Amino acid sequence: MATLQLNHIARETADVRGLAAFYEEVLGFERVPAPTYSGFQVAWLRLPGTPDVALHIIERDPATAVSASPGAVGARPDQLPRRHHLAFSVADYDGFVTVLRTRGTDVFEKTQPDGRTRQVFFFDPDGNGLEVTSPSPSPGDK
After folding, report:
1. What pLDDT, on a 0 to 100 scale, did the predictor assign at position 85?
2. Rounded to whole angstroms, how far apart are CA atoms 27 and 10?
3. Which residue of 40, 74, 104, 132 could cross-link 59, Cys pair, CB 3.0 to 4.6 Å?
4. Which residues are bridge partners to 23 per DSSP?
């Protein structure tokens, strides 16, 4: 069997510029060159240090019926641990949560059963679920 590697995650949106800005400003993504398509906009983003995985933000086709995002329409951040979401980790967890709260982002925080891995759940502007965790403890850490 072939060995697969994750190449990209795509998010469709009506506001490419706004959603890309959120991922750049809040999560630290950087823009990378993207193809130019006729008829719709895209933004290709990457996290520093992860050159092989990209986030593709693609303008939603207005002719296609808009389905609700898995986390949108009436969902709350405290429901995200068991719903669709993308997860990232960050070295300065407390600083990151402070930035979210300063922006007025509705968040839900919890700690894993190990008592050390902290998680914050929230939504991007399009209602896509996101999680950011504190660094995972090393196997020998106590």
Report:
1. 87
2. 16
3. 40
4. none
SS3 assignment, position 16: helix
Which residues touch 55 (CB under 8 Å, ≥6 apart)? 8, 9, 10, 11, 23, 29, 44, 45, 46
Task: Give the separation between CA 141 and CA 89, rounded to whole angstroms.
Answer: 18
Q: Which helix (H) or strand (E) holds 136?
A: none
- Indicate the pairing of strand 108-111 with strand 86-89: unpaired
Q: Quick one: how far is CA 28 from the chain centroid?
A: 10
Two tokens, residue 127: 């209602």
- Both ends of the chain: CA-CA distance in Å? 38
**Average pLDDT, 10 consecutive residues per value, the chain (142 residues):** 81 94 96 92 94 91 68 72 85 94 95 89 91 74 54
Asked if 133 and 85 count as a contact pair (C-beta separation under 8 A), the reply is no
